[in-house]
Specification:
It is a single chain. The chain contains ten helices and twelve strands. The chain has 355 residues and is of the alpha/beta class. Strand 11 and strand 12 form a beta hairpin. Helix 6 runs antiparallel to helix 7. Among the domains are: 104 residues, Rossmann fold (3-Layer(aba) Sandwich); 140 residues, Histidine kinase-like ATPase, C-terminal domain (Heat Shock Protein 90), CATH 3.30.565.
């Protein structure tokens, strides 16, 4: 199909000459003798390109071009100015009005034809590119919808896994607690209860993940608070005799790090409750969590109880629980751990946050 070119010029002679040349070169031509009628014709006929004179009465070429570019139906039609005005200010004004090219009179028709072909090709390329972009955008939107659905299904599945893991752990913990109640051996009963507490501390991580919108991280302050309440309730015989100083920053950590911290905190707090205050003495337990510079975490569990007797070096000769704490702190958290026993017992760990 031949391209249609609209000529807007108030000089009939110019229209006649230009039309004849374009018709000889295979173009369809329509014309208008002033800016207003040219705008209406452009809206109705949707030409492929417009040749526009500048010096016209009532509505000049600059004003006509500006209206064409501000109208939805004609804004994409390329406009080439044809004029005797050759000064740089007029050329600048033409491009500011929205023209794609500028040809001075008297017209050199070979050059005009070359420019027409160039801008028609560019216009066609832009049109094809826009169609391709629209098609790709539609495909992308469709793909995004599919991915969102898959992601939603994945999140539901992961949440369900966390939920079932948590429930299974709590069932095991409850069974251990039940057996500890009926165990005749006091030491065996205590061991069962402590294992149950460790399992509950891990189950609590899965509970937090199930309740969270983020399925990969755990908010450590909230987790430690809940874990602290859980451990304290296991040693409720000390209620009213022990004060607590809890100072926790809001820090998000990975699942593995939360589990490691939970095991350490469970072991240290359990030791404080069991051994730091014999004969139901009054005392103080401190839990501190701070975010230091360079995304480093400081964790402290301390009490002002009886401490370690006989100057024992816990890092070398500690119990299985202490050796477990050291192993987790150094090998899993990749941190530095220090025990102090000046007034009671204090454990301080500094480790990098892995997220």
């Amino acid at each position: 199909m031949n391209s249609t070119i609209l000529i807007i010029d108030d000089d009939p002679f110019n229209i006649k000459i230009i039309s004849a040349y374009l018709l000889e070169n295979g173009y369809s031509v329509i014309n208008a003798s002033d800016g207003r009628s040219g705008i209406e014709m452009a809206r109705e006929e949707k030409p492929d390109l417009i040749l526009l004179d500048i010096l016209m009465p009532r509505l000049n070429g600059f004003e006509t071009c500006k209206i064409l570019k501000e109208t939805v139906d004609t804004e994409r039609i390329p406009v080439i100015f044809l004029t005797a005005l050759a000064e740089s200010s007029s050329i600048k004004k033409a491009f500011e009005a929205g023209a794609v090219d500028y040809v001075t009179k008297p017209i050199e028709f070979t050059a005009l034809l070359a420019r027409i072909k160039t801008h028609l090709s560019l216009s066609k390329l832009n049109e094809n590119l826009e169609k391709e972009v629209n098609n790709k955008t539609s495909e992308l939107e469709s793909t995004n919808k599919t991915l969102k659905k898959l992601l939603g299904d994945r999140e539901l599945l992961i949440k369900e896994i966390y939920h079932r893991t948590k429930n299974n752990m709590l069932v095991i913990s409850s069974m251990l607690s039940l057996h500890s109640t009926y165990a005749e051996n006091a030491d065996f009963s205590r061991i069962l209860r402590e294992i149950g507490n460790k399992i509950q501390s891990m189950a609590l991580v899965h509970k937090k993940l199930y309740q969270s919108s983020d399925l990969t991280t755990v908010e450590l302050r909230e987790y430690i608070n809940d874990l602290f309440d859980l451990i304290r309730s296991s040693y409720n015989s000390h209620f009213g005799k022990i004060e607590f100083q809890i100072d926790l920053d809001e820090i998000s950590v990975s699942i593995d790090m939360a589990v490691s911290c939970g095991i350490i905190i469970n072991e240290l707090l359990s030791n404080s409750f069991k051994y730091a205050f014999p004969d139901y003495q009054k005392g103080l337990i401190i839990v501190q969590l701070k975010l230091l510079k360079e995304n480093t975490i400081f964790l402290k569990i301390a009490d002002n109880g009886i401490g370690v007797q006989g100057g024992i070096d816990l890092e070398k000769t500690g119990s299985l629980g202490i050796r477990t704490i050291i192993g987790i702190a150094e090998n899993q958290l990749l941190g530095d751990i220090v025990f102090k026993s000046d007034e009671g017992l204090s454990c301080e760990i500094i480790f990098p946050n892995d997220i």
